[in-house]
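$ run holo --ligand "LFPHGCPZ" --emit C-alpha cells
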Amino acid sequence: MLRLPSVLHKIHCLMTKPFGPKSLKMRMLVAVLIVIVAAIWGFAVRMSAVLQADLEKILIAQMSATADFVTADLDSELQLRMDLLSQAAAAITPAMLADPAKIQRLFEQRSLSRELFPNGLLVADKNGAIIADYPPRPGRVGTYIGDREHFRASMTTNKPYVGTPVIGRFSNQPVVPFAMQLRDASGAAAGVLTGGISPLDPNLFKFRENLNLGMIVRVVVMSAKANMIVFADNQKRIMQKLPAKGLNPLLDRRLGERIEVPGIAVVSNGVEALNVNRFMKTTDWMVITGVATKTAFAPIKTLQREIYLTALLMTVAIAALLHLIFTRHLRPLEDAAKAIGHMAEHGNALTPLPVAQDDETGRLVNSFNRLVVERNRLHAALQESESTLKKAQSVANIGSWTLNIADAKVTWSSQTYKIFGIPAGTPLSREFVLNCVLPDDRELVSNAWQTALRGAPFDVEHRFETAEGMRWAHQRAEMTFDDAGRALMAIGTAQDITDSKVSEAYIEFLAYHDALTKLPNRLLAKDRLELAMAYSDRSHAKAALLFIDLDSFKSVNDSLGHLIGDALLKAVATRLRESVRETETISRQGGDEFLIVLSDMPDNEAIAKVAEKVLENMARVFNIDGLELFATLSMGVAVYPDDGRDFNTLLKKADTAMYHAKEAGRDTYRFYAEQMNAEASEHLNMRNGLRLALERGEFVLHYQPQISLASGRVVGVEALIRWNHPELGMLPAGSFIPTAEDCGLIIPIGEWVLHEACRQAVAWQRAGLPQFLVAVNLSAVQFKRGELEKSVGAALAASGLDPALLELELTESVLIHDSDQVLATVRRLKALGLKLAIDDFGTGYSSLAYLKRFSVDKLKIDQSFIRDLGSDMEESAIVRAIIQMARSLNLTTIAEGVESEHILHLLRSLQCDVVQGAQVAMPMAADDIAAYIPGAGKMR
Ligand SMILES: Nc1nc2c(ncn2[C@@H]2O[C@H](COP(=O)(O)O[C@H]3[C@@H](O)[C@H](n4cnc5c(=O)[nH]c(N)nc54)O[C@@H]3COP(=O)(O)O)[C@@H](O)[C@H]2O)c(=O)[nH]1
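-- output --
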C-alpha cells in the first residue's frame, strides 16, 4: 500500500514539472495542438492537392487540345502528299514504264508541286532501279532503291504509303519518304513512285507556326513501327531511337496498347513532364504534347508555400495562446501541488490548503483538505495504537524485526535490541543476527529459515548469550513472496521466553521429581525399576525395591512444625543418597515415604547390606536449624524377580514388608515374605470392617477406673473403646484405632465415643453411683479435622452431663503444635467447664509453657516410665520430676500402667495423685463399673 506522503510526492512531481513527460499541462497542450494543427494542416494539404489537381486537369485539357490540333494538322499534310502521289501514279501508264523518257516528260509537263516534295520524285522499276527522277539530277537514274522499306512496302500494297524516315542517298539529309505502287497493264506491280520531304521542312510541320507553344509546351512525333522520333522541337532528337522498353512505362503502355492517356513521366532528357498522346489516322505515328511539371506547377507551388507558411504561423500562434490559457487555469493546481510537495519533501505536518476558485481544482483542493483532516485523525490514532503496541510489546517482552531478502537489510525494534542485549542502533546484517544465536542452535535456526524461504512459517525457539547469561528467544516471522514464488521480505517478532522456558523445565522436572527433596518421584522410580528389571533379565542379577517410612515423623511435624519437618525430610534424602551408589534411584513418594531402586544385585545378601547401610547412616544425629534430631526409619524390601515381576506388585510387597518392620519395633528392615501378604489384606479388611462396625453398632466402651492415692476412692474412669467383632471377638483399641486414624473413620468413631461416654456417665449418676470423672481419649486427627467443640457440646447437651465431670485426654503432640487455631479450640472447650488431661506425658516434647497456656488440669505419666519405675533410676527421676513440676503448676498427676503393688507404693511415696492400671483394675464393661465401685469404695 502506498503511504500518503509518497502519493503526495507523486502528485507534486506530476504537477510541478510542466514540461516533463508526465506533465498534465503538456499533455493537454499537445492534445489540443494535435487536434488544431491536424485541422489546419489537413486543410492546407487538402487545398494544395485540390489546386494541383485542378491545374493538372487544365494542363491536360490544354495539352490534349494541342495534341489534337497537331495530329489533325499533320494528318492533313500527309494526306495531301499521299493524294498527290496517287494522282501522279495514276498518270504513269504501263507504256510509260516501258519508256521512262515519257515519265520524265510527264513530270515536267505536270510540274508536280515541288513544295509538297522538296526532295523531288523518283520512279523505280519493279527491280528497284530508278528509271526516272524529277527534277533530274545527274547520276540518280539507275540507282538502286529496292532495299528501302517504303519501296518494298509499296510493292505489296496499292495504297499510298508513308515510310520510315531515312537519310537520303543523294541529299544525305533526313527524309520522310512517301511511296505509291505503279502497275502494268495486267494490274501487277511494275514499279514504285516515291516522293520525299525533310522532317525539318516547315511545309510538313506547319502547325509550328500556328501554335503558341511558348516556352513550356513540347511536341514530339514518333513512329512505333520505325522505333524512332520522326519530329521533335529539339531537332537533335529527330530520327533518334525511342527509349528502351522499361525506361518510360507510360510510353511503353501507350505504344504497346495503342491507347491515348494523359500522365506524368520522366522523359528521355530526364525531365519530369505532364503529357498527352494522340495517334495519327494516316500513318502509325503518335503525337505527344507535354510540359515540364516544374514549369507547369510553378504557380501552384508558390501558392502551396503560402498556404503552409500560413498554417505554420497559425500553429505557433495557437500553441502560444493555449499555453497561456492552460497556465492561467492550471496555476491553482500547480500551487496546490507545490504546497503538497513541500509538505511531502520536508516531512511537514499536513495542513489544509487555501481554496482559490470554485471549479474542479477547488473541489480537488477541498477533497485534499478533507483527506488531510482524515489522515491527521488516522495518524493520531495510529500513533496512539503504535505507542500502545510498543508498550504491550515491552510488557510482553516482544520485539519486532524485518529482513529484506534482496539486500539482506535487517531492522530491529528497540525492544528487539533490548531482548538480545545489544545497544540500540547497532548496525545489523543477516550474519550479525545469526551470530546472536548460541552456536549450538545456529543450525536449527538456519534450517528453520531455509524452510521458511520455501513457504513454511518461520517459528523457532533458540538460545542466545547476553552479559547476564544464556537466555531463550522465540522467533516467528511471515514471509512475502513475488508472483514467481521468490521470497521478498520477512516480518517477524522476537520474544524473550526465558522465564517460561525455566518454568517449563521446572514443570517438566516436577512431573518426574519431588518438589521438596528434588528426588525422582514415583513415576520416575517406576521407570527406573523397569529399567533395572530389564537389566536383570539380561544379566540374571536381581533388582530390589526398598520401601522406607520414617518412624514417628508425624510427631516431629506436629511438634516442631512443618518447616522443621520439611528440613528433616531433605536431610533424610541426602542421607539416603549417601547410602547407595550414584546410579541407584532414590525417590520420595510423598509424606515421610521414600523408595530406593537397586539394580544389578547379585543376591539378597547384597541387598541387605545396602539396607543396613541406610539404617547405619540414619543413626547419626541430624542438625536441623540448630535442633539436634534423631530419625529412624522402617524399611520393607521386595526383590525382583522373586517377589514380583512388575512395579506395582513389588511396591505393594515392599510396603507390606515395611509394615512388618514397623511392627518389629521400627528402625529396622524386613524382606517381604508371603505370610506378610495375608496380614496386609487383613489391614485392608479392617478398614472396611470399621466402617461396617460403626453402622452396625459393634463398638462398645470399656471403662478403666482411676483411683486417688490419697483417698483410695474411684475419682474417675477412662473410656476405652472396644470392637465387638462378630468373628474375632472383643478387639482392643490399639488393634484398630491407628487404622481408624489412617482412614479418617476416627472422626465419626470419636463422636460416638463422646456421646456414649457422656450418656453412660449420666446413667451411672442416675443409678445412684457417686460422682466421678469420665475421661475420653481424643485423637490428634479429631483435633485437626473434626469439629470438636460441636461434637463435645452436642454430647454434653444430648446427655445432660455436667461438663465438670468430663475430662478430655490429649496427647502432647496436639498442644505442642501451638497454633492459634488449637489455642482457640482448647480455650473454647475449657470455657465449657470440662477438664483437660495430657496423655502419655513425658514421651513428647514436654514444655511448661503450653501447660500454662492451655490451662491443663492433669498430667498422665506414660506407662513406659511407670513400668520401669522400680528398676530404672533414670525413669524414677523422670517420674519424680514430672510429679514435682505438676505440683508446682497445681496440676493433678495420674500414673497409667500401674501393674504392681511395688510401683503403687513408689508412686505413693512420690506423691502421685491418681493411679490407673492392672494393679488397680483393668478396663471393664459399664455394668461392671457399677458393681466395682461400691466394692472398691476404699482401696486396699
Ligand atoms: N482416640 C481414642 N483412643 C483410644 C480410645 N480408646 C482407647 N484409645 C487409645 O488406644 C490405645 C490403646 O488402648 P487400649 O488398647 O484400650 O489400652 C488401654 C488400656 O487397656 C491399657 N492399660 C491399662 N492398664 C494397663 C496396665 O496396667 N498394663 C498395660 N500393659 N496396659 C494397661 O492402656 C491403654 C490406656 O492407655 P492410655 O490412653 O494412654 O491411658 C491407647 O493409647 C488409648 O489411649 C478412644 O476411644 N479414642
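-- notes --
The first strand starts at residue 121 and ends at 125.
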